[in-house]
């Protein structure tokens, strides 16, 4: 259990979803589904992995982030 909690905390802060699966584009959906089905990740952590960690890494400003979210 402690390993799962530790992994959950580390993943949330340090992991970004990325893909260079152009050879097998059908695996992108499966990769996202695996992450979405991870029972030890909260919804906020899943959003961090798919978007927010990359936005922070790329230093996107609030205007760009709002545009990406259709606001």
From TrEMBL:
InterPro entries reported for this sequence: Amidohydro-rel, Metal_Hydrolase
Organism (species): Elongatibacter sediminis
Span of domain Amidohydrolase-related: 15-60
Protein name: Amidohydrolase family protein
MF GO annotations: hydrolase activity
A matching Pfam family: Amidohydro_2
